């Protein structure tokens, strides 16, 4: 297998699978227009944006369109059965793979209603990633819903296909739940009339659907600008609004899909952190919240050095969104400490409900592998 280290080959290859869709197009636009500004000034590293979709005309058109933007980032289109090697060519030597492929919700549907269609898409893309990527280096970011079930499904699919058996790929598969953090921050600022120029940072842990979403609003107590933003009644309303924020967009789009622009914004923020890491601007990504596997294939802690409170707080669930430290090798630390900082409402009311629902969601994903 050729070198996939960015510094060694001087190329950072980012693949977007499902790049012709609502999220895929907007995210690819943000990457094409902004990713270059993250490169160190003195670098000779070049970014390649490798875009794949099953919709041939849409991906060819989208890529042609992006290619007219005057940033020095190469864009290539890939689709099944194309002359340039289809998904194999798209994925080979990839450093970062981002997956927004899949069907979005319509009004009246839950994210879980998407499971069968999207599970078969992710299983097939998982087999391709295993075949064409170097599983011991690639990082995979999952956007497709239902995240709670599809991240376990994809991580297990990759482990199953890992022929060498020692890739630790399960420590480099991440579900992007960042839209929930973006929403929490936005809604608090709206309440404050956008009076402060410093947005609040509110970690959101658990999963990414309804009552599995736990916005840790108790954190606001630590920031003087926002400490008194939420009285008890308002806090309940805000928790509900974050948990069901996705429904607001599905309803507003009235049959034309779910969040795309705000998701692309959230996805780009996460992708930027990985670009910083992979091009060597930073050694680790610190305090990023994503939905990940907390144990490896041997049931050992994914981050052995972490202060482990898992069994005390999250019933040995294998997947959960928590603050992480990530290096090029994958998850280095899981910051379970946040569980000790939860207030009684978060710990005794929100957490037990989350755990119950999330357990079922994880089992669904694992059973489909
Ligand atoms: P979309 O229908 O606009 O785009 C999906 C794209 O995936 C389409 O272009 C389609 O052709 C492509 N596709 C389908 N099967 C494929 C395959 N096998 N390989 C490659 N491409 C394939 O949908 P969207 O609005 O972009 O949403 C995509 C997914 O993201 C949905 O499942 C949605 O629920 C999810 N989503 C997640 C979050 C989150 O917070 N994680 C937020 C919003 C949406
Ligand atoms: C969201 O939170 O907006 C996404 O998960 C899309 C959806 O189905 O709500």
Automatic annotation (TrEMBL):
Q: What is this protein called?
A: malate dehydrogenase
Q: List the lineage, top down.
A: Eukaryota, Fungi, Dikarya, Ascomycota, Saccharomycotina
Organism, by scientific name, is Kluyveromyces dobzhanskii CBS 2104
**Which Pfam families does this UniProt record tie to the protein?**
Ldh_1_C (PF02866), Ldh_1_N (PF00056)
- Keyword check for Signal, yes or no: no
Catalytic positions?
A: 208 (proton acceptor)
Residues the entry annotates as binding NAD(+): 18-24, 53, 118, 143-145, 263
Q: Reaction catalysed?
A: (S)-malate + NAD(+) = oxaloacetate + NADH + H(+)
Q: Matching SUPFAM superfamilies, A to Z?
A: LDH C-terminal domain-like, NAD(P)-binding Rossmann-fold domains
- Which GO MF terms does the UniProt record name? L-malate dehydrogenase (NAD+) activity
Q: Where is the Lactate/malate dehydrogenase C-terminal domain?
A: 177-367
